[in-house]
Write a structure and sequence with these properties.
By secondary structure, the chain is an alpha/beta fold. The protein folds into two domains: 278 residues, 3-Layer(aba) Sandwich (Aminopeptidase), CATH 3.40.630.10; 130 residues, Roll (Aminopeptidase i, Domain 2). Helices cover 25% and strands 27% of the residues. It has ten helices and 20 strands. It starts with a helix and ends in a 9-residue tail after the last helix. The relative contact order is 0.17. One of its GO terms (molecular function) is aminopeptidase activity. Belongs to the peptidase M18 family. This is M18 family aminopeptidase.
Length: 436
């Protein structure tokens, strides 16, 4: 993919992916368009040499892979990993709240949300609804209201004179979005039924059984800055990496399928620890890999000839908060992807995996930066150490420099994502990783 099209496609992907369910659906559509065949976990798998396949779990996690040859124990995998979820506000099961003349929604905080950034934003609702049809079937459908239908107004400074000195947001009482005034009749299930009927004209609904719905900011993703050098959007952490990994799989260097088996894994629930059936700390990836290489000895051989690039965002040095960084490990936006290192294995990078990545980046002519958190600050983590610990694959943690991580709207470089795509596209074709 050329640079001229890359960011336009990225912006469209971000806009069409307000939830992990929608992100997975967007990636599924892109894979099908490129000739990838969908596998179902409940079916028997028959894989062909030279095949292209993908499988989903929970509609929110996806694994896609190529099999240019099937002796994977001799070749190993070239893996790219990311996660589909982002911090957000999720509707509670009994979400309808009526108080003081307003219809509101009860919400639960998902992940490490920067709560104050959700104030005064034009919010919509998207996610998955499970329902019973009039013919007795239980089915799930994705919905996206798209229009701004909710808002969490701030409190006027006249009523909170110390607001600019710093304030907290109570997630039980102060983050409930307003939908409409109490003079309007409102029933949440009827609203959801109407949205389902608008999106699925042929769907015959007996009743809604349950839902997994999130609020999201309707402001579109955009290129910003005097020279359009920044990407500003919700959910850059970590849909940015999902998109880059997908493009590396779909559009490898020289537009040819790699001579080495390549794999993309994008899992849900990273922001809350990854421990779920479809998370990185669950069995999804290992289940898929063992079905491809069922022989236990060959499976171990394959893992030791493989490498995983765990791609997540990295903290760029913020010019207004420079003291928050170790000055020797302070990445800049649009200066290249970041190798993330932590002595306590919060990141899975080691000297060998870092060296392999540096060598590939040099071949493509892209700079590499390095991030280590200040020694007096706590370090976050990624799917890298989890996946490496689960399946024993050598792993590197990398990320694109970002401002405002976990804000409702984050900022990254418009050149960094394309550079990472070029490096990962070469990685998927890398014949030799290390010489032993």
């Amino acid at each position: 993919m050329e640079y001229s099209n890359f960011n336009d496609t990225l912006l469209s992907f971000l806009q069409s992916s307000p939830t992990p369910f929608h992100a997975t659906a967007s990636m599924r559509s892109a894979l099908v368009a490129k000739g990838f065949v969908e596998l179902l976990e409940e079916d028997n798998w028959v894989l062909d040499e030279g095949g292209k396949y993908f499988v989903t779990r929970n509609e929110s996690s996806l694994i896609a892979f190529t099999t240019p040859q099937l002796d994977i124990n001799q070749t190993g995998w070239r893996m790219i990993g990311a996660h589909t979820d982002s911090p957000c506000l999720k509707l509670k099961p009994n979400a309808q709240v009526d108080r003081f003349g307003y219809h509101q929604l009860g919400v639960e905080v998902y992940g490490g949300v920067l709560l104050h950034t959700w104030l005064d934003r034009d919010l919509s609702i998207a996610g998955r609804i499970t329902l019973k049809t009039t013919d007795g079937n239980i089915v799930s459908r994705l919905v996206d209201f798209k229009d701004p239908i909710a808002v969490v107004p701030n409190l006027a400074i006249h009523l909170n004179r110390t607001a600019n000195e710093g304030f907290s947001v109570n997630p039980q009482e102060e983050i409930l979005p307003i939908l409409c005034g109490a003079e309007n009749e409102f029933d949440l299930h009827e609203l959801l039924k109407a949205q389902l009927k608008a999106q699925y004209a042929d769907l015959s609904i007996e009743k809604i059984l349950d839902f997994e719905l999130s609020l999201y900011d309707t402001q579109p993703a955009a290129l910003v800055g005097l020279h359009k050098e920044y990407i500003c959007s919700a959910r850059l952490d970590n849909l940015l990496s999902c998109f880059v990994g997908l493009q590396a799989l779909l559009n490898p260097k020289d537009d040819q399928i790699t001579a080495r088996p390549s794999l993309l894994v994008c899992t849900d629930h990273e922001e809350i620890g990854s421990l779920s059936a479809c998370g990185a700390n669950g069995p999804f990836l290992e289940d898929v890999l063992r079905r491809i290489t069922p022989n236990p000895e060959q499976y171990v051989q394959a893992m030791q000839r493989s490498m995983l690039v765990s791609a997540d965002n990295a903290h760029a040095l913020h010019p207004n908060y420079a003291a928050k960084h170790d000055k020797n490990h302070a990445p800049a936006i649009n200066k290249g992807a970041v190798i993330k290192v932590n002595a306590n294995q919060r990141y899975a990078t080691n000297s060998e995996t870092a060296s392999i990545y540096r060598d590939i980046a040099a071949e493509e002519g892209y700079d590499v930066q390095c991030f280590v958190v200040r020694s007096d600050m706590a370090c976050g983590s990624t799917i890298g150490p989890i996946t490496s610990g689960e399946i024993g694959v050598p792993t590197i943690d990398i990320g694109l420099p970002t401002f405002g991580m976990h804000s409702i709207r984050e900022l990254a470089g418009s050149r960094d994502a394309y550079g990472l795509y070029k490096v990962l596209a070469r990685f998927t074709q890398r014949e030799t990783l290390m010489t032993r």
